[in-house]
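INFO batch 0412 | record 1 of 1 | parsing
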Amino acid sequence: SVGSILDLAAAAAQTKTLFILGGNPAYDAPAGQWDALRQIPEIAHLSFDYNETSTAALWHAPAAHFLESWG
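INFO prediction complete | emitting tokens
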């Protein structure tokens, strides 16, 4: 289901895996919410940059820039 980061932070104790596509919620999330999300055991982050969220995630996958894509 689609919800806000507030909903996700509230359900963090029941969430096993979190996929973050872009963004940097470790830096941008409201105070206290990233701390709740860090309790999720498996966090995967897809991003152009290696940032605070990438550091905290279990997995970081670099996103391909449009100039790196063929086809």
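INFO post-check: The radius of gyration is 13 Å.
INFO record closed
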